[in-house]
Design goal:
Length: about 230
């Protein structure tokens, strides 16, 4: 067994909240940086920028958490429905299910005799677990946890949002926008790299895509804020 591959029992659930955490942090950075940069383009009033940033932070964190909870709950419900259907099939048509399991292992490269022996042994040990893994790719004992994803999203969004908010609040007026943009670029590069590592995707492409999306969002909101600030002023 390779030490570079995760094989422990909670890998699926851990990956689920890691994914939620990375996406939450990324959204917190982009949305809050875009918001405060846009407001900074309209006004230099520190209090207004802070109020807008905090409102965006809490609204975004709650939105991300509730969205993850609903999404993962729907996935969990679907998994439970599939397992319930599998239980009914094992109860009503056990012979057909045994043959189906044998055919699955044959399709994976086992000869007919070996596939039959494997199917029989796994069925005797735990028929539902055997069919859930082979057919549905689900572990009945490790269904996705919506609360873990929701909490990970809330916390990571908040952390991600605090970075550009701190940058815009702790720097002089003339440096607010460039410092906030620089802080966002650095953190977006980090979240892009982590997300690529988690998914096994190309890291350079993920980082460039992440930074480009953030820059576009910040550029558009800054331009809108500047236009609105000039028209109101």
């Amino acid at each position: 067994m390779s030490h570079h591959e995760p094989h422990d029992e909670v890998t699926g659930d851990r990956m689920n909240w890691l994914r939620a955490g990375v996406l939450g942090a990324n959204d917190g950075i982009v949305s809050t940086a875009s918001l405060v940069v846009g407001v900074a383009g309209a006004t230099t009033d520190r209090a207004q920028i802070l109020i807008a940033g905090l409102a965006g932070l809490f609204a975004g964190a709650m939105s991300m958490a509730s969205g993850e909870y609903v999404s993962v709950s729907s996935q969990r419900d679907a998994e439970r429905a599939l397992l319930a259907q599998e239980r009914r099939e094992l109860r009503d048509t056990p012979d057909e299910e045994l043959e189906e399991l044998k055919e699955i292992y044959e399709s994976k490269g086992l000869d007919e005799k070996t596939a039959a022996e494997v199917a029989e042994q796994l069925t005797k040990h735990d028929a539902l677990a055997a069919h859930a893994e082979a057919e549905l790719h689900i572990d009945p004992d490790e269904l996705t946890n919506p609360w873990g994803a929701a909490i990970a999203s809330f916390v990571s969004f908040t952390i991600g949002a605090l970075l550009p908010l701190a940058a815009v609040m702790l720097t002089p007026t003339s440096l607010r926008v460039p410092v906030t943009v620089a802080a966002a670029i650095i953190t977006l590069a980090l979240t892009g790299f982590i997300s690529a590592r988690l998914s096994g995707a190309d890291q350079r492409r993920a980082v460039v895509r992440n930074i480009a999306g953030g820059l576009i969002a910040m550029g558009v909101t800054y331009a809108i804020g500047s236009l609105v600030g000039q028209s109101i002023g």
